[in-house]
Amino acid sequence: MTVHQVEPYNAEPPRSVLVDAVTPVSAFYSRNHGPVPAADEESWRLRVDGLVTTPLSLSPADLRERFPERTETATLQCAGNRRAGLVAVKDIPGEAPWGPTATATAAWTGVRLADVLAAAGVSDTATDVEFLGADVSPQADPPQEFGGSIPLRKAGMPEVLLAWAMNGEPLPPVHGAPLRVVVPGYIGARSVKWVHRVRVTDAPSPNFFQASTYRLLPPDAEVTATPGEGVELGLVAVNSDFLTPDDDAEVPAGPTGVTGYAFAGGDRTIVRVDVSADGGSTWTQAELGEQASTWAWRHWDATVDVPHGEVELLARAWDSSAALQPERPEQVWNPKGYVNNSWARLRLRGV
């Protein structure tokens, strides 16, 4: 893993380990905002309150006993994925220079959030569902628990889980044990780890990490956003990148196989990926792999003609809404370094 920060622990894997449809737990990227909290499953309780008729206090065992178990294969992607490409345009102080692997896919097991909300009875005036984790972050002043919310309409969808396992194994502490939220199609920040409270509300969360941090600011904005400034990040924009060969690799000149991933948030799917070895003058349409679920990435592969010497390969993806990645990182640069979904670029040397 490339470790961007030891405490809190933030790390991403090498490109090549993401070539499988489901990512090994040991290679799943880790994005944290505070120390991993000590969690005891026996004493852990999930509080469900707010605009509900029957507040609940549920242990992990209660969740297993009261609600049907579900498994959903879903990709999570950090809003800062591929930030390094924006840093190359202009420095972004204080932010981890994530490469293209702050994204991964797992088979998540737990219960549907919708089932738990139905048991609590949601008020007709509710519009949002807020999650609070047990991790306390010093990034906020004063320090506060990490949290965020999603619209009630999304919370009621069957793919949103309160999960206790990934890839058939209990959640590791660094990935949210004993319980985390999984919100497919949304930025990873909404899949709150170590969740101990679900609060039904009539407004988006005022938590620092939703109101002030995970927001898309214009290029000339101050780095520190006032609450509510900019665009609240939610659905993942269409994105893609290369997985093999590695960046700056030497390869035999001539026909060369390349692979990568592409992903789009919401319920959108990837419908096309193109690869170019001549700066975009001509394009080769990639072969798309099978998609494990509506909520998972799609791998792709293509063969391109690599010349002798240095070459930069390009890749671009379309999703099912006909959205296309923007061409250059300069077009999407912002002072927090979020949502770099510009065309993927891979440097190779043909020998």
Structure characteristics:
351 residues; mainly beta; Sulfite Oxidase, Chain A, domain 2; Immunoglobulin-like; 2 domains
* Strand order across the largest sheet: 4-3-12-7-8
Supply the CATH architecture of the largest domain: Alpha-Beta Complex
What is the C-level CATH assignment of the largest domain?
Alpha Beta
Number of helical elements: 5
Cofactor: Mo-molybdopterin
Pfam families: Mo-co_dimer, Oxidored_molyb
InterPro entries: Ig_E-set, MoCF_OxRdtse_dimer, Mopterin_OxRdtase_euk, OxRdtase_Mopterin-bd_dom, OxRdtase_Mopterin-bd_sf
Protein name: Sulfite oxidase
Topology:
Layout: E1 2-5, E2 10-12, E3 46-50, E4 56-58, H1 60-66, E5 69-77, H2 83-87, E6 103-112, H3 113-120, E7 128-137, E8 144-151, H4 152-155, E9 161-166, E10 169-170, E11 180-182, E12 195-201, H5 208-213, E13 215-216, E14 231-232, E15 239-244, E16 249-251, E17 254-263, E18 270-276, E19 284-285, E20 287-288, E21 298-306, E22 309-319, E23 344-350
Parallel strand pairs: 3-12, 16-23
Antiparallel strand pairs: 1-2, 3-4, 5-6, 6-9, 7-8, 7-12, 9-10, 9-11, 13-14, 15-17, 17-21, 18-19, 18-22, 20-21, 22-23
